[in-house]
Every structure is written in structure tokens, then in C-alpha cells.
């Protein structure tokens, strides 16, 4: 197995030096590095990358570590050895993925999905025109114009979609910004700074506060070292680092530092155990860039729609091709008819309508703090059936906040809302002293020039817990700055993981009876060890068993709420420690026993105010919310209960066991609706066990999870047929964000990597915004259905004239140019206006749609559009057509089988029903006038169709006419029809002629019939849910 840098596998470095590849000839070495740099390594097996990090370097003794990597732990590698390893393993860089060129992306927009259907229609038009030109000296150019228009429509829409799409392939570029540029190494006993890409496995490196870790390193020494792992593990607080092995899991042990994380305090020295793609960060990068994402739900729906429309078009085309031959038409005419019917079924304006509708919704979502990068993700969020949410910053406020205080024998509630106005009694002398200790024995401070901001929103220096205490005292007591000026600090022992306490000594006020006071805070059990008395209502009392028992109960209660608890105590130093006393914190020269215990303060990152109602909305909408966090199970469970992910009354197996007083092993797991799964337990589960957890529990929390586990959870949900949305903000979340049906990154706290991997960005980092997005996604799916139903309905009155032209032999009732005027003219704005329609009352009460059965275009929608409303519209068109023809002398029965003579340019004496003769030019004026009337009748009945398409279940009277864009759409299509009918020159340009006012009125009764018919249908659906009418007509 190859090791290190560009050639690492699952286990970073588990070979004995003797098993390593031998040194190769220099020519081959140079070639190898060249290949490594230019081509990168071969693609890793994604399934291998999904496995947990396997290494044992954190368990090795220093002697074993030195032997494994052939490195002297004092002098480091020799320069020659380092060069040899660099030649073998390649540079310490991340392999860039293969990216899709922009021209390929552009072509995908032009030649896939709906565009392909329009291109097919365009090509068929050109074929039909070619046949006509070849076999007829003189031929009308309708098919040529239609072919050109279709090509232009698809090209313009393709360009529009290409520029709107923001699905980025820049994931690796974001990783590059995280890679440090230089590293401090020791080689041959000399300290030197080198380019980070030249760091090799076995190098002895040094890091200090402010540095980025140049590779995965095993620490051999550390002085107060803390690292910020938030980008990797999601843990918000800096993590202590030491040479000691503290945990089996390499991600949680303290003696490993990871590539690209930040050292925020102290210094450390360590041996490089992995470089480049073999690092934990490298594995995540490879996993994120190598994952294949599936087709979006809306993409699948459009594909389904294309298949449906294509099937209908081909069926009708072939049927009437055969009928044409049976009626005695020649094969050339039959082929022209075949192509004409197929093209007539293509909804030319629908591609543009869908694209514009999605774009409008994306802009509306952006105003509601949901920035959509990929247009198709707009609808995907609406289809979501499972949300895997991160905890910190999404469900919570991402700020440690004081939650409870215990002093004077009472637990006090502190307000954890964004305003944080503490309402407990502040008159106690004990509270006075507790507030002073919390403010003075504290290294946090406010950053400069923030006085105008609310205290809760001010930025601080210092860790999260101390910042929480600082803000709490500032809000609830008085100015900490003034407090510190009155009681300056003269000595301090900072908190460390060994002592588990922080100590500071302060000068007292001039009028005080003593000169100095010692204050201490830290782990409660540790603080209690230093105390012999406790403070009650400002008076000191000897420590007794009752107080210790009460202390243990309160500590356990607060800890059980997932809160971080700190204890506080103080000691008034005797007069021997006068002003100017030289306190020594290295060799302690002051008392540290017999302190007075004051109380406890607990902190938590509290839930956002809007989250509980948002989770409740998800439950009503049939959406399962799963918490996936890297935090401790107790904290995760507490927050889950606080926001309603674990609802009131639902128990975990542990809760049931505690209630019944039995071991957890005796509880039937299926009786517990809720479950909290620890990452270590998840690690031991196979796919079937994970499936059982996801299926058998309605309320789930995954705690202490790794990036790979988050990905496995997402895949587990998808394998059960769920449409999965995932939230995340760190680098560790990027594989899951990429794999999810919709990845949601945090706009404020999110890393660049997570934002690049996601489909959507929450601009306010608030879970409640996701629920708003779900509603918008459901709304656009509903409105797209309505828009498609509206658009498809006019297909029947567009197709039937052509069919009657073939079957009955009547003059053509509706021309190709006139059809284009409908599809790309009068129907476009009204169809788009439906994207602005308000949601119906049940939109967030129904369960997520089933992608297998609840399609964008289904049998019922086709049945309604083609078989019912479309047929009524066709009747309106033919009625108007026959009225115009009759008023011009041609009765309906006399029009039958007249087509051939009517279209004969050499026949100039055709008699009408009254014996009057008509020339070819005169007949064509009547034909084009009747076609214009047919066109106008479609516009009139489309008024009614647009109004009934406002709702699928509710009455239009319930919904109201508040959609101003829709009202404008009705006005626009009417004015456009008037413009096309009466504008001088249209008789030549589009062959449209002026109409009598009475001809506009012919279709109005049919519009009224459509409206009444649909209102009765919806009333029946509401009154008889699940009945025959709903099953057959509710689309």
C-alpha cells in the first residue's frame, strides 16, 4: 500500500519502514513527480473514502513513532531523506477534480431535457418545409417560420438558464484557500521555513498561535496549545492539544492536529503522519468533489413530462398518418400531416415559462433569506421529506448564553432569548459577589468601538464560555470595565485541562478592610474541593453534607439539561498580603484552601426563538427533522427537546429505562419513538441496522458524528426513498451537502467550502428560513402544475382544427402562425402570472409529495387539460369558426370535403351556400378571418381557464383575485389579441384580419361553462375527499 501525500489510502501510514517502496532511479523519480503534479493521483474509491479514518499513530509511544517514520525526534529528517520522500509521495497538495468546461455546461442547457423536445420539433418543421419545397414548386412558408421560431426560443431560453445557474464546480478552490503557505520544520537539526507543499511524511514541524497546521501531525510536545477544529469537526470551542493519547477515535484524541485547522493558542511540535490527499481534510476534499449527485426531482418531473407529451404526440401523429392514408391522401401529404400533428403537440412557450417561474421564485426566496444557487433546487426544497439539520448556529443561536444560576440555595432562570433580560432577584449580597467573580475572574473582553451595539451583538475576545459570562454580567449587573478598573488584577493562573480551574487575585477598593481578594472559577467538583464554607444570603456558613448533596443534585440536573456548568468561589486574603505583595503563580506563595463557595452558573448555546414553531410546521407538513451534530449526546438531546425535534411525551429507551427503573438492555427499542445515537454506536452499525433506526423511530438525534457518518446518514435516508435536505456550515459537512438532494449552507458562519458544495445558502443561518423555503418550494410545484395545466389546455383547440382539416376536409380553421401567436404571445404572460399565485390553505398541512406517484404532469392533469377543459375550448373555437364562415356565405355542412377545391389556387369560381362565386384570394381572406376568430375565441376561453387554474382544490371565491400579475395577464392577452387583429399590416405580416365585435362574444358562453363546471368539480372534491371525482380529476 502506498503512503502519504498524493498516494495515500484509507489508513494514512500503517507500514513499517522496511515495507516502503525502495528508492528508484532518478529519471523515474522525476517522471513520477511530474506525473503527480500535472495529472494528480488516480481517483480514489469513493466507498473507501466514506469509511472512518483508520490510524494508530495516536496510540504509539514516542519510540514507536520515531521507528515507524525513521525520524529523529530532536533533529528531524535529514534533507536528503526528506527529498527522497518528496520524490516518492509527491507534493503536499490536494488533487484538483476534473471540472466540466463551460461550453459543455452551455450545451447541456441547449440540448437536454425540454430543449431536446423543442429542437426535435424545429427539425421536423424544417423537414416538412423541405418536403413541400421539393415536391411543390410553390409552398407556403409556415413550417419554415415555425422551425426558426422554435430554434430561437430554445436558444434564448438556454442562454437564460445558463446564466441563471449557479451550480458551482469550485469546491476545490475553496479548499485551496484553507491551505497554509509556509511551514516551520526541523531538518538535520536546523530549524527552517519551507513551502508547505514540500512538507513530507516524517517531517518534524513546529506550530504556534496564529499558524495553520501544514499537515496531519502527531504531537510530541505542546505548551498550552489549543486548535480551532470548527471547520473540520463543527466544535465551536478551541480544543486543547497535548502529547497524550486520550481517545481511541483519532478525531477526538488530543495528540493529533489536522491539516488546515488553526492553532489559536500556545505552541506545539509534532511528526507529520499524512500529507496531501491522505490527510483527513484531503479525504473530505476527495469525497466532496468525487461524489455523484442524482437528478433533481424537478429535472425528473420535466423528463417524465417530455416522455408523456412525446408519447401523446407520436400516438396522435401515427394514428392520423394511418387515417390520412385510409382517407385517400397521398403519402407525401400524410407525412406532412404526421409532422404537423407532432409539432402541434409541442408547447413552444412552456420551457420559457418554467424557467421564468423558477427564477421568480428564486428571487422571492432570496428576499426571505434563502439564496438558491441552482434553479432546480427551488422546487427540490418543496419536495423534501427529511431534513438532516446541524445543531450549532442553525437550530441554536451560535452563542454561549447563561441559562441558570444557583445561589442562596435556589436555581434561578436566566433568560436565553436574543434580548436576554434576566428577571431573577438581584438584591442578594450573594448575587453581588457572584457577579463580581464572573466579571473579574474572566479573560474575555469587548472589542473596541461597539458601544452603540446591543450587548448581545457585541464581538468579544476570549472563549465562548467567558464571553457568555462577560455579556451576562454586563447586562444583568453593571459595567465590567468599571468593575475591573476598581479591582485591578495583580496575578492569574489561566484555566488548563489539568487543573480545571482559573484563578485571579485582585486589589480591593480603598475603603475595603482587606487589600486583596482571590477569586476562582472552574469545574464545579474541582471548585468544591478548595472550599470549606459556603455563602448564603451574603453570610458564610461551614460546608456540610446537606449542602454537598444539594450541590450534587443541582449539578446533575443542570448537566442533564446539556448545559456547561461552572463553579465559583472566593477568599478574602489576610492583611499579610498587603498592597504590592509579589504574588508568584509558578511557586504558589498564597493560600488556596478554605475558600468560600458562592454558587453555580450554567451556560448553553440556546435554541433560536423561531425554531420550535418551524419544527412544528415541519411535523404538520409530514417532514421528518433529524438532528446530526458533532456535539455531546446530552447537549444534543437537550436542544432537541427544546426545539421539539424530540416532542413532549416522547421518550428514548434511556428515558423509559429510567422511568421503569430497569436496565436499558431490557427496553424494547421499538417502544421508544425517540432515539439518540452516539457516533461510536453508528460506527458499528451496518446498513440494515441504520435502516431499522431510521424506519422505527420518528424522532432521531445523531451525536458525536464524523463527516463520513453524516454522509452515511444522508444516503441511508435516500435509500428509504426520502428527498433529503442537509444543513451544514463546516468543511466537515461538504460531502453530505453535496450528496443531499438539496444541500443548505450557512451564509454567516458557513465556510467557503460548504457554500460551494451546497445548492442553497441561508443568509440568516436560521432553521426557520428553511421552512419558509419548503413552503415556497411546494408553492412553485403547485403553481407550475397550474401553469402547465393552463398552457396545455390550449393544445386541444390548436390540434383539433388540423385534425378536422384532415378528417372532414374543411378549410383549415387555425394556421401555424396563429398557433405561435397563442403559445409565444397571448399565453406567455398569463402562464407566468400563475407563479405569483398565493398558496392554497392546505399547502403546509399535506405530506411531502411522493416522487413516484405525484408527478408534475400526471394522467389526471392531461385528462383535465386535454379531455375536459380543452374540449370545451375546442367547441368554442369551432362554433366561432362556423359562425364567421356562415356569415360569409358558407354553411357548416357545405364546408365538408371542400378542402381540396378550396386550396386550389387555380379555382376562382367556387360557389358558396347561396350560389355566389369566390376567387382563390377572396376565399383566403375569409379563411384567414375565420382563423383570426378562432384565435380570439381561444383567448376568450383562456380567461376562464386562467381563473380556474388559480386553485386545484379551493374555490376561486375562497382564493380571491389578489394576484395583480394575473389580472395584468388577462388584460395583456386581451390587448395583444386586439393589437394582432386590428393593427394595419397584420393582414400581410401574420395573415390576421379585423373582426366584428359580435364574433368576440361567440366564445363567452363556453367560458362561463368552463368556470361553472370547474367550480362544481372542486366543490365535489372538497365535500367528498378521496372520492371518484378527486381520484380522476385532482391533479
From TrEMBL:
Residues 1-27 have a biased composition (Basic and acidic residues). Residues 1-43 are annotated as: Disordered. One of its GO terms (biological process) is potassium ion import across plasma membrane. It is a multi-pass membrane protein. Its main location: membrane. The chain crosses the membrane at residues 110-132, 144-163, 305-329, 335-358, 861-884, 965-985, 997-1014. Keywords: ATP-binding, Hydrogen ion transport, Ion transport, Magnesium, Membrane, Metal-binding, Nucleotide-binding, Phosphoprotein, Potassium, Potassium transport, Translocase, Transmembrane, Transmembrane helix, Transport. Coiled coil: none annotated. Residues 56-130 form the Cation-transporting P-type ATPase N-terminal domain. One of its GO terms (molecular function) is metal ion binding. It holds the Pfam family Cation_ATPase_C. It is found in: Cell membrane; Membrane. It comes from the Eukaryota. One of its GO terms (cellular component) is sodium:potassium-exchanging ATPase complex. PANTHER family: SODIUM/POTASSIUM-TRANSPORTING ATPASE SUBUNIT ALPHA, SODIUM_POTASSIUM-TRANSPORTING ATPASE SUBUNIT ALPHA-4. This is Sodium/potassium-transporting ATPase subunit alpha.
Amino acid at each position: 500500500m502506498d503512503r502519504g501525500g498524493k498516494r495515500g489510502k484509507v489508513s494514512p501510514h500503517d507500514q513499517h519502514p522496511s515495507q516502503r517502496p525502495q528508492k528508484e532511479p532518478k529519471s523515474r523519480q522525476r517522471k513520477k513527480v511530474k506525473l503527480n503534479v500535472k495529472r494528480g493521483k488516480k481517483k480514489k474509491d469513493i466507498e473507501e473514502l466514506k469509511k472512518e479514518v483508520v490510524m494508530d499513530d495516536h496510540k504509539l509511544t514516542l519510540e514507536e513513532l520515531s521507528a515507524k517514520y525513521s525520524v529523529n525526534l530532536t533533529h528531524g529528517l535529514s534533507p536528503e531523506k526528506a527529498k527522497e520522500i518528496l520524490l516518492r509521495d509527491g507534493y503536499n497538495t490536494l488533487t484538483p477534480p476534473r471540472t466540466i468546461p463551460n461550453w459543455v455546461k452551455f450545451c447541456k442547457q441547449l440540448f437536454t431535457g425540454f430543449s431536446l423536445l423543442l429542437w426535435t420539433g424545429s427539425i421536423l418543421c424544417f423537414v416538412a418545409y423541405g418536403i413541400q419545397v421539393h415536391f411543390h414548386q410553390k409552398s407556403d412558408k409556415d413550417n419554415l417560420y415555425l422551425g426558426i421560431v422554435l430554434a430561437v426560443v430554445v436558444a434564448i431560453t438556454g442562454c437564460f438558464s445558463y446564466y441563471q445557474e449557479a451550480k458551482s464546480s469550485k469546491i476545490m478552490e475553496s479548499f485551496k484557500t484553507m491551505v497554509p503557505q509556509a511551514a516551520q520544520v526541523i531538518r538535520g537539526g536546523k530549524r527552517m521555513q519551507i513551502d508547505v507543499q514540500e512538507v513530507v511524511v516524517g517531517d518534524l514541524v513546529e506550530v504556534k498561535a496564529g499558524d495553520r497546521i501544514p499537515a496531519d501531525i502527531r504531537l510530541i510536545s505542546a505548551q498550552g496549545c489549543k486548535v480551532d477544529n470548527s471547520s473540520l469537526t463543527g466544535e465551536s470551542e478551541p480544543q486543547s492539544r497535548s502529547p497524550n493519547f486520550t481517545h481511541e477515535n483519532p478525531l477526538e484524541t488530543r495528540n493529533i492536529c489536522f491539516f488546515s485547522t488553526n492553532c489559536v493558542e500556545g505552541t506545539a511540535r509534532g511528526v507529520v503522519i499524512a500529507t496531501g490527499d491522505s490527510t483527513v481534510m484531503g479525504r473530505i476534499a476527495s469525497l466532496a468533489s468525487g461524489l455523484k449527485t442524482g437528478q433533481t426531482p424537478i429535472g425528473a418531473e420535466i423528463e417524465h413530462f417530455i416522455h408523456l407529451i412525446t408519447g401523446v404526440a407520436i400516438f396522435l401523429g401515427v394514428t392520423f398518418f394511418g387515417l390520412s392514408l385510409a382517407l385517400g391522401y397521398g403519402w407525401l401529404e400524410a407525412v406532412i400531416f404526421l409532422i404537423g400533428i407532432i409539432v402541434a403537440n409541442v408547447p413552444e412557450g412552456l420551457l420559457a415559462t418554467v424557467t421564468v417561474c423558477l427564477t421568480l421564485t428564486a428571487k422571492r426566496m432570496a428576499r426571505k433569506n434563502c439564496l438558491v444557487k441552482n434553479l432546480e433546487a427551488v422546487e427540490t426544497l418543496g419536495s423534501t421529506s427529511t431534513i438532516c439539520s446541524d445543531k450549532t448556529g442553525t437550530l441554536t443561536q451560535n452563542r454561549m448564553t447563561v441559562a441558570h444560576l444557583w445561589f442562596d440555595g435556589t436555581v434561578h432562570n436566566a433568560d436565553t432569548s436574543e434580548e436576554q433580560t434576566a428577571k431573577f432577584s438581584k438584591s442578594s449580597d450573594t448575587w453581588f459577589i457572584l457577579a463580581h467573580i464572573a466579571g473579574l475572574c474572566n479573560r474575555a473582553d469587548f472589542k473596541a468601538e461597539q458601544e452603540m451595539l446591543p450587548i448581545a451583538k457585541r464581538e468579544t475576545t476570549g472563549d465562548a464560555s467567558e464571553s457568555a459570562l462577560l455579556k451576562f454580567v454586563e447586562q444583568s449587573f453593571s459595567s465590567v470595565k468599571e468593575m475591573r478598573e476598581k479591582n485591578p488584577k495583580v496575578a492569574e493562573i489561566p484555566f488548563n485541562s489539568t487543573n480545571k480551574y482559573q484563578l485571579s487575585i485582585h486589589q480591593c477598593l480603598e475603603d475595603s478592610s482587606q487589600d486583596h481578594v482571590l477569586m476562582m472559577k472552574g469545574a464545579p467538583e474541582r471548585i468544591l474541593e478548595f472550599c470549606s464554607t459556603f455563602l448564603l444570603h451574603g453570610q458564610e456558613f461551614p460546608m456540610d453534607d446537606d449542602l454537598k448533596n444539594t450541590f450534587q443534585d443541582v449539578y446533575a440536573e443542570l448537566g442533564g439539561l446539556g448545559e456547561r456548568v461552572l463553579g465559583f468561589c472566593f477568599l478574602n486574603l489576610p492583611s499579610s498580603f498587603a498592597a504590592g505583595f509579589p504574588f508568584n503563580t509558578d511557586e504558589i506563595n498564597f493560600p488556596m484552601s478554605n475558600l468560600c463557595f458562592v454558587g453555580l452558573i450554567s451556560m448553553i448555546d440556546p435554541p433560536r426563538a423561531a425554531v420550535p414553531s418551524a419544527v412544528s410546521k415541519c411535523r404538520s407538513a409530514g417532514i421528518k427533522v433529524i438532528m446530526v451534530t458533532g456535539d455531546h449526546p446530552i447537549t444534543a438531546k437537550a436542544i432537541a427537546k427544546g426545539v421539539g425535534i424530540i416532542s413532549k411525551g416522547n421518550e428514548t429507551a434511556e428515558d423509559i429505562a429510567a422511568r421503569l427503573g430497569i436496565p436499558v438492555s431490557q427496553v424494547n427499542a421499538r417502544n421508544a419513538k425517540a432515539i439518540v445515537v452516539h457516533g461510536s454506536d453508528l460506527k458499528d452499525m451496518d446498513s440494515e441496522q441504520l435502516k431499522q433506526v431510521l424506519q422505527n423511530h420518528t424522532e432521531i438525534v445523531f451525536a458525536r458524528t464524523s463527516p463520513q457518518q453524516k454522509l452515511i446518514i444522508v444516503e441511508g435516508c435516500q435509500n428509504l426513498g426520502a428527498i433529503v435536505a442537509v444543513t451544514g456550515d463546516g468543511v466537515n459537512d461538504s460531502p453530505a451537502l453535496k450528496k443531499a438532494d438539496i444541500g443548505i449552507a450557512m451564509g454567516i458562519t458557513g465556510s467557503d467550502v460548504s457554500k460551494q458544495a451546497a445548492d442553497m445558502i441561508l443568509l440568516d443561518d436560521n432553521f426557520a428560513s428553511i421552512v419558509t423555503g419548503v413552503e415556497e418550494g411546494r408553492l412553485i410545484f403547485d403553481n407550475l402544475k397550474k401553469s402547465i395545466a393552463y398552457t396545455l389546455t390550449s393544445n386541444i383547440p390548436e390540434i383539433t382544427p388540423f385534425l378536422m382539416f384532415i378528417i372532414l376536409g374543411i378549410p383549415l380553421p387555425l394556421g401555424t402562425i396563429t398557433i405561435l401567436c397563442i403559445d409565444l404571445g397571448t399565453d406567455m404572460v398569463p402562464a407566468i402570472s400563475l407563479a405569483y399565485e398565493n398558496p392554497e390553505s392546505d399547502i403546509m398541512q399535506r405530506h411531502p409529495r411522493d416522487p413516484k406517484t405525484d408527478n408534475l404532469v400526471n394522467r389526471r392533469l392531461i385528462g383535465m387539460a386535454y379531455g375536459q377543459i380543452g374540449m370545451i375550448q375546442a367547441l368554442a373555437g369551432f362554433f366561432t369558426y362556423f359562425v364567421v364562415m356562415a356569415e360569409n356565405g358558407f354553411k357548416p355542412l357545405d364546408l365538408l370535403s371542400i378542402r381540396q377545391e378550396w386550396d386550389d389556387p387555380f379555382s376562382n369560381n367556387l360557389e358558396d351556400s347561396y350560389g355566389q362565386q369566390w376567387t382563390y384570394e377572396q376565399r383566403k381572406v375569409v379563411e384567414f378571418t375565420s382563423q383570426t376568430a378562432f384565435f380570439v375565441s381561444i383567448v376568450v376561453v383562456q380567461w376562464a381557464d386562467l381563473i380556474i387554474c388559480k386553485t386545484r382544490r379551493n374555490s376561486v371565491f375562497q382564493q380571491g383575485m389578489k394576484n395583480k400579475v394575473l389580472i395584468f395577464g388577462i388584460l395583456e392577452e386581451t390587448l395583444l389579441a386586439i393589437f394582432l387583429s386590428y393593427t394595419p399590416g397584420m393582414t400581410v405580416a401574420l395573415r390576421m384580419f379585423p373582426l366584428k365585435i359580435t364574433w368576440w362574444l361567440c366564445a363567452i358562453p363556453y367560458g362561463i361553462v368552463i368556470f361553472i363546471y370547474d367550480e362544481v368539480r372542486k366543490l365535489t372534491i372538497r365535500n367528498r375527499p378521496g372520492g371518484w371525482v378527486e381520484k380522476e380529476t385532482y391533479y
